[in-house]
Amino acid sequence: MYITSILCVIGCSTTDNSIPDSQADTDMPLSKTETEVYTQQLISEWKEKVRTDMEASYKNKEITIGDKTMRLAWTVFDEKPKDGYALYISLHGGGGISAEENDEQWYNQQWLYEPDNAVYLAPRAISDTWDLHFLPETDAFYHQIIMLMTVFQDVNPDKVYLMGYSAGGDGVWRLAPRLADHWAAASMMAGHPGDVSLVNLRNTPFSIWCGSEDEYYDRNLRCAERID
Which of 47, 168, 207, 208 is a Cys-bridge partner for 91, taking CB atoms 3.0 to 4.6 Å apart? Predict the structure, then answer.
């Protein structure tokens, strides 16, 4: 999944001096062993670059892109599995309310879940509008969160999960299909789907949770329609 894009980017931009000169000027394919060695070299180079570029983001627990900053809070649970931690990105409620109220929603989200053998991360949305989690410019932030946790917390990029409730659920409805290749699975709780298409989730597990009497914005009805 995500690691493939990492290798593609590096493979297209990094010169590898470890390939024998006899192969450098020919079309001779690499052996399986050479390919594995080269792959690990590329990953190591990529991680070192990310570690350098994002050290301040990790230390300060915030990512800044342009004039927007996303604050982060995370907790690491249990021992790391052999294939790396899972990462759960959990989106808070709120939206369309004051910054102080959205901050309270974010603080609450930080302690809602304790997944096993995982990094649980709650980002503070970059705005206070109703669509605070899925503004177009947010995609780059989630991309960088995954890179940050892959390098600094040894998260397995094939075990990244998206979840959220209320306004966070609104975000999951839209981010899950929009960035489908980023997620191992996604879980939406009490959000409104609007007119979003789920076609991109053909190969991504997606769960819908909404109370049958949760009538705010008719989201119980809209969620039921999507389940049917």
Answer: 168
